[in-house]
Amino acid sequence: MEPTGQKGLERALSQKAIQMGNSTPCKTWVLGFFCGVCITYLFLVAVAPLRTTEVGLVYSRTAGAVSQNSSFWTSGISRSGIYSSITEKVDISEDHSVGLEPSDEERVMMLYNAWALLNGDDGHQFAGADVPDAPHFENCSLNAQMYKQFDSHGENGSYLPWTLWRGLLGMELLHPSSSKDPEKTHYHHEAKFGDAYPPWVVGSDEDNFPLTRLVQRDIWVRQHPKNCNDPNLRFLLADWERLPGFGIGAQLAGMSGLLAIAINEKRILVTDYYNRADHGGCQGSSRSHWSCYFFAETSTECQKRAFSLMKSQEAWQKGIITVKDNYTSKEIWAGKVPRAWGRPWNYLQPTTEVDGSLLRSHRKMDRRWWRAQAIRYLMRFKSEYMCHLLNVARHKAFGLQAAKMVITSLSAAWPKVAINKSEAGMERLVWSIHNPWIPRPLLSMHVRMGDKACEMKVVGFEHYMQLADRIRKHFPDLNSIWLSTEMQEVIDKTRRYPSWTFYYTNVTRQEGNMTMATYEATLGRKTSTNYPLVNFVMATEADFFIGALGSTWCYLIDGMRNTAGKVMAGYLSVNRDRFW
Ligand SMILES: *[C@@H]1O[C@H](CO)[C@@H](O)[C@H](O)[C@H]1NC(C)=O
Ligand SMILES: *[C@@H]1O[C@H](CO)[C@@H](O)[C@H](O)[C@H]1NC(C)=O
Ligand SMILES: *[C@@H]1O[C@H](CO)[C@@H](O)[C@H](O)[C@H]1NC(C)=O
Ligand SMILES: *[C@@H]1O[C@H](CO)[C@@H](O)[C@H](O)[C@H]1NC(C)=O
Ligand SMILES: *[C@@H]1O[C@H](CO)[C@@H](O)[C@H](O)[C@H]1NC(C)=O
Ligand SMILES: *[C@@H]1O[C@H](CO)[C@@H](O)[C@H](O)[C@H]1NC(C)=O
Ligand SMILES: *[C@@H]1O[C@H](CO)[C@@H](O)[C@H](O)[C@H]1NC(C)=O
Q1: Regarding predicted confidence, which is higher, 399 or 457?
Q2: Domains of the chain and any CATH numbers
Q3: Among its keywords, does the record have Transmembrane helix (predicted)?
């Protein structure tokens, strides 16, 4: 007999409880409700004691409001990490007396918590039957599998792995290994086309920087030769910058420069040691490598080849392999932008406003275009780990809202009666490809002050909010802001804007004049990398963005957005780049 939803849930919850307390199942479970900071403003739901007849659980809340603990970021991903932000106690009693049906509010909390469990590493155990899908989650293992296929040559390497059919639709129905039946082979020829574009570029051509699709495709092809052992191939092997003064943005900008050199010299770029991935979250071969967060820049075979060439005297002498030291920092940071595609930057859409007018041209149009392409390429596919971090962040910020939505459409009998999920082709192949839900329209705002004063004109939070108000005048349905900032002072000021809903992560923030490097050191390597990267991706996916182009970080976010179909969202910058 199939267990009912409630039992399945209970089983999962008690497994967790057993794992947590290493003793016998205890009377008091401690459940981590890691609730987004800003959610507290929205849902101060005091959930009354909940009884369910079947299992005799009595959930009682110690406090009315949901409280938080900042440790989430450092531990939210680990197996037991979910519980490290201990904020609520759930008491189990043996009381089997006939109870009340759970109220909607209680059901919302149950769903929210069930999703949190699903997000744990071993959550898949009961993924199937009992819990409705979380609209704000991506299926990370499924996506990673799909990306992996998009990132490798077809079985005999004779064509690009992309099709004219999106995502799973193309993968499932056109996959060469599954195309035994003649109808599928027919599809094969119809939809496979040699001209398919890389699946990581979305939006129409006009919605992206000029030639984005073509350039992304070419870079991929150059970085993924069919045979890495071909003696004519040349390589550039480089570590990521690792001086403490280099922020993530600067490291990425440096790597874009190296990619430009590689393209210009017809080499394959292979990246090596990435200090920011040198922490316990990055396991196995992704430890200390870019592939912890995003797919590697080239194939494993080419990486291996480059490492073996490093040991060959001859390869060095013949210049088959070079390293970062073969190039001056000027070549890396201010070198020639590849001209392999002409000068598409001459056609950059003027959709950026600085000081009240659209920016038509400036001295570094070529670099702006190139960095956007390079970043887009390097970040084309999220790793499973990164996907997971984003699920956690979305759950923390938007999880309760999502649960409320889902409960409205759920049978009142849930969780007593399991739900019926449809596994039809539509759900599985077509609708599964949509982006995870976030409360759209969403404005992402990156407010950077602190030690940046030395490199750009620093602008107060009030100015950012004026720009936000300006966007809202035109798009009146906008009222959510995803705020990323290092400054506690900025967080404190959000209280002055009650007409906006702010979402942000509760990490320890910079106070006073602490330098960025010192600040990052206090956070620890894992948090100081995971937190900004999550914000980076959120900023790319948000509908609007406000930031200071003078900061490398915002400059790169802008590049990601302009190669993610967001050109026409426009960009209001509080200042300009110092080199323009
Ligand atoms: C928050 O987490 C830290 C470290 O995990 C812990 O020391 C602290 O007691 C927690 N605070 C609360 C209020 O639970
Ligand atoms: C963030 O976490 C800290 C604990 O480290 C807590 O003291 C603080 O109240 C939290 N911030 C908010 C806005 O809840
Ligand atoms: C993710 O996709 C896989 C493969 O289709 C499936 O087995 C798994 O149940 C899915 N996970 C979730 C949480 O939906
Ligand atoms: C590769 O596969 C395609 C289609 O399956 C086939 O037409 C072609 O002959 C194969 N090429 C080689 C070199 O095996
Ligand atoms: C790169 O540097 C190494 C060591 O400094 C040198 O032996 C090699 O010739 C250089 N390669 C090129 C192409 O300049
Ligand atoms: C679940 O869906 C299947 C197929 O759509 C249907 O036959 C079955 O009756 C449904 N069960 C419930 C409990 O709705
Ligand atoms: C930073 O602030 C501290 C005290 O808050 C002060 O002693 C120090 O001189 C300041 N440093 C700079 C560079 O302003």
Answers
A1: 399
A2: 5-136+391-432 (no CATH), 197-350+364-381 (no CATH), 442-573 (3.40.50.11350)
A3: yes
